[in-house]
Amino acid sequence: MPDYKEFSKDEERIYDMEMGKLIERLKSGQSLKEACSAINAADEELRQIIADDGLKIVIAELHYNQGMDFEQVAYRLKTTVEQIEETNRIMIEDVMHTIKSKSGTFGTA
Questions:
Q1: What's the rounded Cα separation, in Å, for the pair 38 and 25?
Q2: Is residue 89 helix, strand or coil?
């Protein structure tokens, strides 16, 4: 599991602002590639984190909230099903890592 980047206050501000813009671009119909290419962050690592997290948010909304299958999500974002599946796999790993680090157990009585 990769380590998570600690943001400075300035990076947090950029992250929040650019994430909002990214989600709006995707909602307006831009492709994932188009929307991510407009991320305005000088630091390449921060740009990639925004792009990755934005895709995770959109997958959560379209797949888990709206019930689209991965093919529909990929078509909507003009990207590959493989990219959607890989990002979803990473999302599940993130959740499992969080669960394990919080308590080590889940659902026991």
A1: 9
A2: helix
81: Cβ contacts below 8 Å, ≥ 6 apart? 70, 71, 74
Q: In which band, very low, low, confident or very high, does the pLDDT at 19 lie, cut at 50, 70 and 90?
A: very high
Q: What is the pLDDT of residue 51?
A: 97
Q: Could you write out the DSSP letters of every residue in 5-59?
A: PPPPHHHHHHHHHHHHHHHHHHHTT--HHHHHHT---SSHHHHHHHHHHHHHHHH
pLDDT tens per residue, range 67-107:
999 999 999 999 999 999 999 999 999 889 888 887 655 55
User: Is the Cβ–Cβ distance between 77 and 58 less than 8 Å?
Assistant: yes
How far from chain centre, in Å, is Cα 66?
16
Q: How many CA atoms lie within 13 A of 31 on its CB side?
A: 7
Query: Using CA atoms, how far apart are residues 97 and 74, in angstroms rounded to an integer?
Result: 26
